[in-house]
């Protein structure tokens, strides 16, 4: 009997930065299970049944669309009033910045700082971070992929804390109902602000951080 020839295994050069896509495996977006990728009919995760993709479909295009929408919402969110306060027949409208100024002048600087960071700084930084990541992916940048991946995960986690301003206004509107003596109503600005928070959260979720590492293979 002849000696069987040894099977040739697919080898990967470890000196070249390797992604799961290059190795022929794919991670489930839902449960994280690593599965072998094959070309053909729709591939489903054997553990949770979710659809498997080497990369999120149209990730860049969808993220760009959501980021641009967030930028458009961000301007009226800071220009239009978020609350209309009525006290003894006199009505005062406040934007996010005027509310921050009010808390500063009344000595509640810590509340002003929380609102300023959560409602002004965080949404702006999140938009800037997503634009930076999208541009770096489009330019096939190989600059510090670990740090850019870490930046993405930080952006994804902290974005939801911007909703603190929406929660504050909601609680104030629900509690401060004293008839003709005092009353508070939500302004149109809070709608735009909520839209900023939601669109940036969706934008972060639609971005595929694995795109950051694809450029490492191209340059190798």
Mean pLDDT: 83
Helical content (DSSP H or I, runs of 4+): 40-55%
Strand order of the largest sheet: 4-3-5
The gross shape turns out to be: elongated
Q: How does the helix and strand content classify structurally?
A: mainly alpha
Strand content: 5-15%
End-to-end distance, in Å? 45 Å
Tally the helices.
8
Number of separate structural domains = 2
* Secondary structure: number of strands: 5
The largest sheet, given as strand count, sense and whether it forms a barrel, is:
3 strands, antiparallel
Order of SSEs = HEEHEEHHHHEHH
Round the Cα radius of gyration to an integer and report it.
Answer: 25 Å
Which characteristics define this entry?
2 domains; about 220 residues; about 55% helix; mainly alpha; single chain; three-stranded antiparallel β-sheet; 8 helices; two-stranded antiparallel sheet; about 10% strand
Q: What can you see in these coordinates?
A:
- With 220 residues, the chain is mainly alpha-helical.
- It folds into 2 domains: 1-54, no CATH class; 59-219, no CATH class.
- It is built from 8 helices and 5 strands, in the order αββαββααααβαα.
- It has helices spanning 20-23, 59-79, 96-105, 109-138, 145-158, 164-175, 188-206, 211-219; strands at 25-27, 34-36, 83-87, 90-94, 182-186.
- The strands form 2 sheets. The protein has a 3-stranded antiparallel beta sheet with strand order 4-3-5. Strands 1-2 form a two-stranded antiparallel ribbon.
- Strand 1 (25-27) and strand 2 (34-36) form a beta hairpin.
- Helix 2 packs antiparallel against helix 7 (188-206), helix 4 (109-138) packs across helix 5 (145-158) and helix 4 packs across helix 7 (188-206).
- The two termini are 45 Å apart.
């Amino acid at each position: 009997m002849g000696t069987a020839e040894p099977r040739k295994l697919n080898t990967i050069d470890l000196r070249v930065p390797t992604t799961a896509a290059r190795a022929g495996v794919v991670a489930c977006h839902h449960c994280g299970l690593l599965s072998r990728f094959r070309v053909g009919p729709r591939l489903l995760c054997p553990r949770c049944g979710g659809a498997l993709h080497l990369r999120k479909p149209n990730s860049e295009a969808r993220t760009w669309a959501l980021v641009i929408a967030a930028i458009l919402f961000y301007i009226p969110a800071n220009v239009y009033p978020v609350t209309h306060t009525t006290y003894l027949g006199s009505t005062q409208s406040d934007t996010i910045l005027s509310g921050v100024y009010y808390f500063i002048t009344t000595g509640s600087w810590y509340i002003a700082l929380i609102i300023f960071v959560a409602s002004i700084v965080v949404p702006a930084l999140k938009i800037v971070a997503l634009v930076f990541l999208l541009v770096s992916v489009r330019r096939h940048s190989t600059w510090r992929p670990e740090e850019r991946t870490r930046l993405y995960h930080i952006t994804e986690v902290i974005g939801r804390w911007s909703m603190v301003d929406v929660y504050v206004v909601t609680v104030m509107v629900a509690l401060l109902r004293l008839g003709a003596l005092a009353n508070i109503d939500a302004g149109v600005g809070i709608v735009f602000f909520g839209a900023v928070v939601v669109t940036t959260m969706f934008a972060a979720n639609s971005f595929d951080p694995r795109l950051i590492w694809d450029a490492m293979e191209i340059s190798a």
